[in-house]
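Record 1 of the preview.
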Amino acid sequence: MPHLTSRTASAASTDVRTGLGVPGYAHPLLAPAEWGELARPGTPVHWAVLNVAQGPGSRPDPHCLETVARLRDAGVRVLGQADLTDGARAFGEVISDAQRYLDWYRVDGFLLDRCPSDRVSLPETLRTVTTLRTLHDEPHIVLGHGTHPCPDYAEIADQLVTFSGPWSDYRWSQAAEWTADHPPERFCHLVHGVPRRHLDEALRIARWQGVATIWFTDHSDRAGRGDPWEGMPGYWDEIVSRIGTGVSE
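->
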């Protein structure tokens, strides 16, 4: 069994409504079945990320427009993807991408990918998040750190991705102690390379670490040469059944 940091009794025993956070399938032309599954009634999707071309692209994509409309009709929250490049990307570029996502696809919020996690970068990230909140009435903001950041980041976003990586690391991972001060709905874990036989174990790890939004897949990143998120997990029906129905947001 992995070494887990124990949570407070209230967090560990709460009936957490676990759901899926889809970090971004391939383009709808390449993955029509995958996108279609997200719109099925009762599928427990908290949100799905639309990444047209490493961002919103240069013009509205009719296939993406159709997909977003179908997801919206199904009540699925759609997020635009904006890459912060670990704090190196210009503020204006990030906001420009966000505005195009809103103008073209009417997204419900944003996943800020490769978000920095150190305290020094916090003011600039706060500036970005504050500006995004002026562009939309109630945007859902997810900070894609991929690791546990400085605790103060929890005060500026709706959710934090506190793990993103392979199963070989996840099964021995630990939750930072400060996360126990927040409800599970504030955290997300994205894990690739999870074998079917370890799916239940992976779900237990997420629950024990106090995480409500997850994405587990048996695809791998092929030693950094591929995107493990672009396809549907081979055990899609099984993971949907494990999580249960009726928790779509």
